[in-house]
Structure formats: C-alpha cells, structure tokens
Amino acid sequence: MVTGAAGTMGAAVVRAFLEDGLKVFALDLKQPQQGEAVVCDITDPAAVERLAKSIGEVDVLVNNAGILSNNKSEATSPDEWRKVLSVNLDGAFYMARAFIPGMKKRRWGRIVNISSGTYRMGRPNFLHYVTTKAGLMGMSRSLARELGPSGITVNTVLPGVVFTEHQKRRLPEEYQRMILAGQCIPEPLPPAALAGPIAFLCSEAAAFVTGQELAVDGGLTHGG
C-alpha cells in the first residue's frame, strides 16, 4: 500500500514495486494511474477502517501522502495548521493503525514513513509542514519499539527537494540554486532515486533495520 500514489514521488515508488512483480494498492484522493487504484481520504479514520476491511491485509505500508503550504507562523490560521497536520501526521497514524493488526497476525510487516530533511534544517514559513515531518520521525521510532517483537519494522525516509514542475514554479531560482549548491551531489534529485532505498527498507534484506531515518538528498543534510 502506497499513499499519495498519484504524486511524483508516490508514482515512482509504485512503479518500482510493480517492476519487482508485487501487487500494489496505489492510494490517493485522485485516481492513480498505476497499480490497483484506491481512492480514499486518509484524514477520515472511518474511511480508512472501511478501506482496510475491504482490501484485507498488506505486507508493506508506505505513508507518502503529504501536503504543504507556506506562511509565516503568526499568519497561519488554525484551519491551515490543522489541515497540514491532518494529512501529514493524522493520516499516517490512521493508516498504520488500520493495517498493523494484519501484519501482527502474520508476524511480518514493513512500514516506511516519508518525512523530509526540512525537519533537520528547519525552514522558515513552513512551521506546520516541518512540525509534521519531525512528528513522523517520532512516530516511526515509537512504533519500531512497539512492533519489533511482532516482526514489523518501521523506518523513515527523508527525501531532498525533488524539482518537479510545480516545485520549479513555486520555488525562486535563487533558492533552487542554493539547494543544489548545498548537496554533496549538486544535481537535481530524480523521484526514481527514492524508490530503491524505500524498496530496500521494505525487503527481507532490511530485517534488522528499524527505527532509523535514511536521508536521500544528495548529502544536503546530516543526521545529528
């Protein structure tokens, strides 16, 4: 199960799983174009529970769905704050809660939460977004401790800036140049570059990797 599957990063992950011959449920609010398309609002816990009952158990959950908006903290309305937290953090929790029981039953499972390097760096005017991405790391570490005895691993991937056409239009060219200059590999990050590390964390080869964060950002950030 991959959430946010209609977006650039989500689609790349779905494609990689399909190429490995796996059955993939591709979830989004919009109709995904690959895999077994599932339309669901992950901010609605009742809808997520109905989804879990209808499709049954899954081995892997990639919580990729997320939204962002930029605003100064004092100008961020409670509604804007709540909307970002609802999708980025609440949605990941609802999805995990719904599919963990099936993983426990089989004593095998992989959960990967897609965070962001912005939580390491801080980023002005994105307080709600950065807060949720830090929260996902805490969620992963806590779930890893809780679910390890059941054969379930939980990890976090921190993508760098993927310069989609939308990002290029939204981000000033000066900022784009600054990001690339700060990377050890000063080249734009292709969405496909995320798929391999995520697939590894979802594999048997990563059976003893849990509670970890993996930055896929060309060396832009460093753990601390």
Summarize the structure in words.
The chain has helices at 8-19, 45-55, 78-106, 118-121, 127-147, 165-170, 173-182, 192-201, and strands spanning 2-3, 25-28, 36-39, 60-63, 109-114, 152-159, 213-216. The chain is an alpha/beta fold and 224 residues long. Helix 2 runs parallel beside helix 3 (78-106). 41% of the residues are buried. The model has no long low-confidence stretch (mean pLDDT 93).
Structural class: alpha/beta
* Unreliable spans: none
Ends distance? 31 Å
Helix amount:
40-55%
Q: How is the topology of this model organized?
A:
Blueprint: E1 2-3, H1 8-19, E2 25-28, E3 36-39, H2 45-55, E4 60-63, H3 78-106, E5 109-114, H4 118-121, H5 127-147, E6 152-159, H6 165-170, H7 173-182, H8 192-201, E7 213-216
Parallel strand pairs: 1-2, 2-3, 4-5, 5-6, 6-7
Helix pairs in contact: 1-8, 2-3, 3-5
Could you give a quick summary of the protein structure above?
With about 220 residues, this protein is α/β, with parallel strands linked by helices. It has a single domain, classed as NAD(P)-binding Rossmann-like Domain (Rossmann fold, 3-Layer(aba) Sandwich), CATH 3.40.50.720. The chain is built from eight helices and seven strands, in the order βαββαβαβααβαααβ.
